[in-house]
Structures are given as structure tokens and as C-alpha cells.
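Section 3.1: Structural characterization of target chains.
Under the original work plan, the team committed to producing a structural model for every single-chain target entering the pipeline before any wet-lab resources were allocated. The record below documents one such target. The sequence was received from the expression subgroup and is listed exactly as submitted; it comprises 414 residues.
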Amino acid sequence: MKVLIISHMYPSNANPAAGVFVRKQTEALVAAGVEAVIINPVPWAPFFLCWNPRWRRYAQIPDMEKDGAVPVYHPRYLEFPKGFLFASTAGRYYSGMAAVLHGLFEKWRPDVIQAHVAFPDGAAAIRFGEEYVIPVVVTVHGMDFLKTLQRGPACERGVKQALNKADRVILVSDTLRENFGIDQWMEDPDKCRVIYNGVNLTDIVTTDRQAAQSGDFGHATRTVDIGQASPVLLTVGNLNKKKAHAYVLKALPDLLRRFPQLVYRIVGEGEERGRLERMTDELGLRARVVFLGGLSHEEAMAEMAACTLMALPSWDEGFGIVYLEAMAHGKPVIGTQGEGAAGLIERENVGLTVPARDSAAIARAACEILGDKEIARAMGQRGREAIRTQFTWSLNAKRTLSLYEEALKEKRGQ
């Protein structure tokens, strides 16, 4: 099967950490026999904006490259700074991609188009799907509901129209369906399917040589020297307010009274770093908090292997693949009630969920897990088993491929 994947989130040299989950799914689909081509729209960077590092990186992205065996095209579209005129982006996406796609369709006609996010990617993909009579599958990761719907009536219409016109819709968590009333505003809610993201078992790092040699949990054995005794509390996520690093920091004094050797390690970079470092100093926590900055995926996975507990009590979260990565390493997790991963955490009993913006609740949950090694071990074991049986990228690819085939049969009237 030939699949054209449209995603502005696909990793590039302008943002190598963006959309790693899109790349991982693509790799799994290719391993399952799919022939894939990526369209990664990139903002056109005029020379007078290239003084800005972000726009300069956009200008340096090639028009086409290979990611392994997968061709990746980077057509340019007109984007305005600070999201100005965002509601009209889908039309500019279509115009920017048109020449590349028309040429591609002449020599390589895909069976299915998949777009990651409904607007603008999905809206533009649907125009091409209608033009060439090809089914379109749209994946909603959370951004559409958590951000784009809130940008105004025009953006709300754009999201809803894209999802109603799509042949199939993939939601990356049950929470997305439950929290945003999709069944009330979609004409055919039955075409929505929940397919969770996944983890590659071969990406898992272990400090247990016997487990590594067994092949169950990874192919590499790496020991991470953090220079401190356990327990280790870890957060992996961009440093922005909604990731809730500040609330974990505020919980630390209570945690340290019970676990004086506790170390809090933070993986990620972002606009909140300065404020979080000042807060760390004000709370007198500098000796117990380590800001690691942005790490490679492999380095972040090694941190997962070394930690005792992973806490990401964020809000406005579509799902958050780091919960799966922590579970894959046998680590209990703390998430947020009513958010993307909450249903999974609670259903599989692999950690605890807390109310949003509640440092006291974070401290209580962490104490409950860290204070009972048997509870923590059991949560970790359940998490690892859940990953093995339900949440791998290969299973994601199998389910996604089945949905492609279903949409294709329907489009052909079979």
C-alpha cells in the first residue's frame, strides 16, 4: 500500500525533536510493508526574516531529502509571525504543496493520504483527496482540540469541517473523545477510532544485563551514572507552564522531608527555564534539582531507565508519549486527572493521577509510590506488560494499516 503522509510536525533540522512520534509511526508502517512519502510543509523564510534563528533554520531546510528509505519533501508555504491569519493557513498550505503533490501524483499515486492534525494539515489533505478521489485519514493528537478550536470561530469551523470530511479519524487517546463532545458535532462519530501511540521495544534501555540479554526489554545495556543515591524523580517535557514543572518543584520540600536523598531531574528546554531555575533557588533546592536541558531521544530513554518515578502532571495534554516510555522501562508514573493519559494510567493501574495544578496532591502521590517499593514495583511491572501487549509501534502500525484498508474499500465502494 502507498501512503502519503502530510505533517508539519515531522522532524527536520529546524526542529529535530518535533513530531518524533510521526517518524516512529512511519518507520513502523514501512516495516509493515507500507510504501510511504512524507510531505513536511515548511514556512517560507524571506531574507529579511533570516536574522531570526528560527526563520534562518527554516531557510536551511532542503526542498527534498531522504529519511532512511523514505522521501521527505519540504514545500514552502506563506506563514505570518505569531500565528497571524492562522485561520487561512489551510489555503496557503494547499497552494504551497500543490506543485510538489501534483508532480508526485503523476508518477506515484498513493492509495491513502494521512494527515497529522486536522487543521491545517488535514484540511489541505482533504482538498487533495477530493481532487484525486483518494481516502484521507486524519490523526488528532490533541493540538486541534486543545489549541486550534480556541483560536476563534473560523478555526473551530476549520477543525470540525476537516474531521467531518475525513474518511476516517484517529484519536490518540480515549480522553480526547470523551472531553470534547465529538459525538455531538461529528456527523458520523463511528468513523473515529482510538489508536494509541507506541514504543519500540528495541528503544528501551536497561541497566539489568540479564533482561537485556533476554531480548525482552531492549537490545542495549547502559548504566546511567547520576551521581546521587535513589530515589530519582524525573520529568521529561518541554519547559512550558502547562507541563507543570513548577508544581512539582513546589511539591519537593514535602517530599524531601520524607526522602532527604531525593533528586529531581528535568529533561527539556523551553521558555520557562529561567523562571524554574529562579524558583529552584528561592526554594533552596539547587542541590536536589538537575536541569538537563534538551536531550536526544536515546539520552532521554536512558534517564527513564535510571529514574524511580516519572511525574508529568501536565494539563491540556492530548496524550504524552513519555508516559508510555516510562511504563516501558518499568517505572510508575504520575499524570493528571481528566487529561490524555489519565484513562490509561488508571485503567492499567500503572501509577497515580492528581488534580491539575495541585502541588500537595503531587507530593502525596509521590510519597505513596516512593514509600512502598512493592507498590512501585508492581505498577512498573504492569506498565511494562501493558506496553509489550498493547502499546508498541508495531501494534499501532497494524491497527492503522487496517483503518487505511477499511477507508480504501469504502472509497472504492466495496
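The first helix runs from residue 20 to 31.
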